[in-house]
Amino acid sequence: MKKRIISNHMIKNKTSLLAERMNSSPNKPDVILCVLSGGFLFFSDLIKQLTFDFEIEFIKNSTLVNNISLTDKKVLVIEDIFDSGKTVRELNIFLDYKQVK
Questions:
Q1: 88 occurs within a structural domain
Q2: DSSP code per residue over 42-76
Q3: Has residue 62 got a pLDDT over 60?
């Protein structure tokens, strides 16, 4: 059996703290973009605790499509792991192209 490095309780606690910070921040995102499929569970747990209005978009990291309207919007990206940096580089190019804030 694999040893857990971070407990479920700690993850839930940190998710709640992040939601509290986002709820009280004056700089809230207009759109929360979930990179599928790894980021979905965290995304789901986080957005349930947010008390402000926002749009939800989903994107598959291997198929960055152009039918998402993000121009001039503040976007929060939820991704599961930033390992090699390939997905982040592709997302940065995509978001630059979409002219997000």
A1: yes
A2: HHHHHHTT--S--EEEEEETTB--S----TT--EE
A3: no
